[in-house]
């Protein structure tokens, strides 16, 4: 994303606009109340602005990564679905996730003893601590070992050292879910009390199961590419 004389090119007339070649013919726009941060790190363009309706918004290379208003739904699902599908997730590796949201959810689990997070761009971590503190709170956990570097290279050398590996990269296309593990049914379903204690706003055992129930058109589309 290039900057113009009045700020980032994606912000025009008080509105942020996101377009993507993956979704031709459409765009996402949010009204901007205040530009909070904009600079280019060694790896990517980092933008944070306060929106009128979604709170603070983190944008990397012109693509929205998260908003304060609804980030919890993504973070809770990507973290709790695999953790509740493993009988004893003591050691967890997080690839990416520099905003801290996945880390926040992972360290809530009593079964998790140690978490290694690999984030290649330290600037994303520092920006998130400043402008997204409710997401970055997990960075203060004693369970965390932070590795600033290429997570996939780290994983090649240490894959067998972890019970659960969660990839939260900013790549536009995700990786397929492994077929060697049954994620459809939680092996450690959280009780109602645990859901309350972990302050979960989206995930629960029923949502876990429902995540694998698809309408017919979506099921057929996935079958065609699997």
Structure characterization notes:
The structure is a single chain. By secondary structure, the chain is α/β, with parallel strands linked by helices. It has 2 domains: 58 residues, Spermidine synthase, tetramerisation domain (Spermidine Synthase, Chain: A, domain 2), CATH 2.30.140; 133 residues, Rossmann fold. 28% of the residues lie in helices and 28% in strands. The strands form 3 sheets. A 6-stranded antiparallel beta sheet has the order 3-4-5-6-7-8, with helices on one face. The chain has a 4-stranded parallel beta sheet with strand order 11-10-9-12, with helices on both faces. The two termini are 34 Å apart. The model has no long low-confidence stretch (mean pLDDT 90).
Summarize the topology:
Blueprint (H helix, E strand, L loop, with lengths): L2 E2 L2 E2 L2 E2 L2 E5 L7 E14 L4 E7 L4 E5 L2 E5 L3 H13 L7 E6 L4 H6 L7 E6 L2 H10 L1 H4 L7 E5 L2 H8 L5 E5 L23 H6 L7 H6 L5 H10 L1
Structural class: alpha/beta
Please give the CATH class of the largest domain. Alpha Beta
Sequence of secondary-structure elements: EEEEEEEEHEHEHHEHEHHH
Any guess at the CATH architecture of the largest domain?
3-Layer(aba) Sandwich
**Largest sheet data:** 6 strands, antiparallel
Structurally, the number of domains stands at 2
CATH homologous superfamily name of the largest domain?
Vaccinia Virus protein VP39
Features:
12 strands, Spermidine Synthase, Chain: A, domain 2, single chain, 226 residues, four-stranded parallel β-sheet, alpha/beta, 8 helices, Rossmann fold
């Amino acid at each position: 994303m290039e900057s113009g004389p009045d700020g980032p090119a994606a912000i025009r007339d008080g509105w942020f606009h996101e377009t993507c070649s993956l979704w031709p013919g459409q765009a996402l726009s949010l009204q901007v109340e205040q530009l909070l941060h904009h600079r280019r790190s060694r790896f990517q363009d980092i933008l944070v602005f306060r929106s009128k309706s979604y709170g603070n918004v983190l944008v990397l290379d012109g693509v929205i990564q998260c908003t304060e208003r609804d980030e919890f739904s993504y973070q809770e699902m990507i973290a709790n679905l695999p953790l509740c599908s493993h009988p004893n997730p003591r050691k967890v590796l997080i690839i990416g996730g520099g905003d801290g949201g996945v880390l926040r959810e992972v360290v809530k689990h009593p079964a998790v003893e140690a978490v290694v997070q690999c984030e290649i761009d330290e600037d994303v971590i520092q920006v998130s601590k400043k402008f997204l503190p409710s997401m970055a709170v997990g960075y203060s956990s004693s369970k965390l070992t932070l590795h600033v570097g290429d997570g996939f290279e780290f994983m090649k050398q240490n894959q067998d050292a972890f019970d659960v590996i969660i990839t939260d990269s900013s790549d536009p296309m995700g990786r397929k879910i492994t077929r060697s593990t049954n994620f459809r049914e939680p092996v450690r379903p959280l009780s109602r009390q645990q859901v309350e204690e972990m302050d979960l706003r989206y995930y629960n055992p029923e949502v876990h199961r429902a995540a694998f129930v698809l309408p017919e058109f979506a099921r057929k589309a996935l079958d065609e590419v699997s």
